[in-house]
Amino acid sequence: QVHLVESGGGLVQPGGSLRLSCVASGSIFNINVMGWYRQAPGKQRELVAALKDGSNTNYADSVKGRCTISRDNAKNTIYLQMNSLKPEDTAVYYCNAKGKLMGTIILDYWGQGSQVTVSS
Questions:
Q1: Cβ-based neighbours of 109, under 8 Å, separated by 6 or more
Q2: How high is the mean pLDDT of the chain?
Q3: Which residues pair with 5 in a beta bridge?
Q4: Is 75 helix (H, G, I), strand (E, B) or coil?
Q5: Alpha-carbon Rg of the chain, whole angstroms?
Q6: Mean pLDDT, to the nearest integer, of 24-49?
Q7: Chain-centre distance for alpha carbon 80
Q8: How would you class 87 by CB atoms within 10 Å of its CB: exposed for 0-12, middle for 13-18, buried for 19 or more?
């Protein structure tokens, strides 16, 4: 089992910045992809950014150039730095961890979610 705890959400004005954090604990040695998803009211959950095998990044087109995903291995923590925030970035942001157990069993864990509201 992997336990994910997010922090760092809140209310920010348009153009502002926030940094989300996600601390992972448990059997993280089976995890090779960690990322951030978001879900706005009435919309499907979507990928924001992902970090695979510690170095390969993937970003949604809507956040490219404005968001950066990073990790601190010593703290078992990933971050999502979000700049130039827009009202359409308002959503609940979820930390996600994926991997495989014994090469075949898919592992997929989610954090509890952190609300980000961009509003003046």
A1: 1, 2, 3, 4, 31, 96, 97, 98
A2: 95
A3: 23
A4: helix
A5: 14
A6: 94
A7: 6
A8: exposed
State pLDDT tens for residues 19-31. Answer: 999 999 998 888 9
User: In 3D, which of 115, 61, 63 has the Cα closest to residue 84?
Assistant: 63
**Distance in Å from the first CA to the final CA of the chain:** 40
| pLDDT tens-digit series, residues 57-68 | 999 999 999 999
Q: How many residues does the chain have?
A: 120
The Cα–Cα gap between 2 and 5 comes to 10
The token pair that represents 54 in the structure block: 């510690």
55-106 pLDDT per residue, tens? 899 999 999 999 999 999 899 999 999 999 999 999 999 999 999 888 788 8
SS3 5: strand
DSSP E strands in the chain: the ranges are 2-7, 10-12, 18-26, 31-39, 46-52, 56-59, 67-72, 77-82, 91-101, 105-110, 114-118
Contacts of 53-62 with C-beta under 8 Å, sequence gap 24+, read 62/88
Residue 28: strand, helix, or coil: helix
